Amino acid sequence: MSETYNRGTVEDVGRWTEFSAGMWAWIFHKFTGWVLVGYLFTHIAVLSTATASDPTVYNQTLSGLESLLVVRILEVGLLAVAVFHILNGIRLLLVDLGIGLQAQDKSFYASLILTGAIAVASVPTFLAGAF
Amino acid sequence: MSMDTDTDTDEGSIDSAPEPEVSVHQTRRLEEKEARRADRAAAEQAAAESLADEETVELKVFRYDPEVEGKEEPRFDTFEVPFHVGMTVLDALIYARDHYDSSLTFRHSCQQAICGSDALFVNGTQRLGCKTQLVDLDEPIRVEPLPHQEVVKDLVVDMEHFYDQMEAVEPYFDPDDLPDGELEEQRQSRQNREKIKTSTRCIWCGACMSSCNIAAGDNQYLGPAAINKAYRFAMDEREGEDRKRERMEIVEREHGVWRCQTQFSCTEVCPKDIPLTEHIQELKREAVKNNLKFW
User: Fold this and answer.
1) Which entry of A94, B57, B102, B201 is 20 to 30 Å from A77 by CA?
2) Chains A and B: how many Cβ contacts under 8 Å?
3) Which residue of A1, A95, A104 is in closest CB contact with B216?
């Protein structure tokens, strides 16, 4: 209710410690969604400027970016964000179809663990030769 | 009581007019009175002792009264309440009100999770006061009014908006044809009863609506309870076709089922364990089926 009387701590966002699995899944899904939208635009901007002139510019841009440690680390983050968004998206699809609603918290934890595992497994690939 | 007064007057007569002859009955009555007094004193002492070294729980209760000067500012009052096995949050509140502060205000009635009056925000979750055991909670137990509803006083919130939303889905039967015969029953199949069973358990406590993140930001959203109520009638095979279509139209609106983002908050807090999200999702699918045309 928008015009609620302000009760201070009662409606504070600082209550995030009390959130349950479904709430976290929602927050993470929103967050990863926005990150992916942001990445999409950056991706388009970088590629469109790199491919505008002659082909050597593309190679220079890409190798220049890959030589930065921050970019390598961000790539792992991007993979984690994308994997979580995909897995939780499948979870939400099942929820929409009415399948396994009793196990919705478990499927959230499962997608979190799987995301973590995949992100960790990708570290050697993404960070090889970065140091 | 009448026995006491009897003996009292007898006692008085002894003092004023000393008589050497004391009747057998009078001595017996005096002895009895003495024994009762001793009993009472012992009981009182036992009660006092038990309260002194009794296990207690600390209750932090939200207090706010806009009508009394000095209480307009929300604050928390701490109450130390004796703990008994099987004690609920509501029992503790009743004890605090009866023994410490009679101005402590909260709604309660049946105390057995049927009337739905005492939905409270206990330790950060919407719970029914009479259904929540104190042993299950970490101390100090923080008791607050339901979030996202206007506080009237202390733990009492304004439920008017919630009731409006409940009534918005027209929660009553309107069958197309009534059975012949005045006293004929309208039968429902066992399978259909099973389908709507959990949805009929709603006690209108408002815990789900208060827990819903979407309802908090969108005042027009019907809310889990109202959608569940719509489900209860829409899925009942005895409901009339016209009324069902009308009800589905209400549910399909902008602030109806499609606002739900499956956070499962309502399902978690429902004291009657109604799978609210499941019902909302089923109505969503029903709405798609009604409106999706492939030609």
Assistant:
1) A94
2) 79
3) A1
Please give the domain boundaries of chain A with CATH numbers for all domains. 20-127 (1.20.1300.10)
Same domain, B164 and B265: yes
- B158 residue type, one letter: D
Q: Which domain holds residue B77?
A: 56-157
Q: Does A94 contact B at CB distance below 8 Å?
A: no
Contact A1 B148 (CB under 8 A): yes
Per residue in A41-89, pLDDT tens?
Answer: 999 999 988 887 788 888 888 889 888 889 999 999 999 999 999 999 9
Mutate which of B262, B266, B281 to test chain A, going by most A C-beta atoms within 10 A?
A: B262
Interchain CB distance below 8 Å, A96 and B284: yes
Inform me whether the C-beta atom of residue A15 falls under 8 Å from chain B C-beta atoms: yes
Tell me if residue B197 falls in helix, strand or coil. Answer: coil
Which token pair is A80? 């984690």
Residues B233 and B132 occupy one common structural domain: no
Interchain contact A95–B (C-beta under 8 A): yes
Shared-domain flag, residues B140 and B217: no
**How many domains, chain B?**
2
Peptide bond into B175 cis (omega under 30): no
Confidence of residue B194 (pLDDT cuts 50, 70, 90): very high
Residue B202 has pLDDT above 90, yes or no: yes
B169 and B93 both lie in a single domain: no
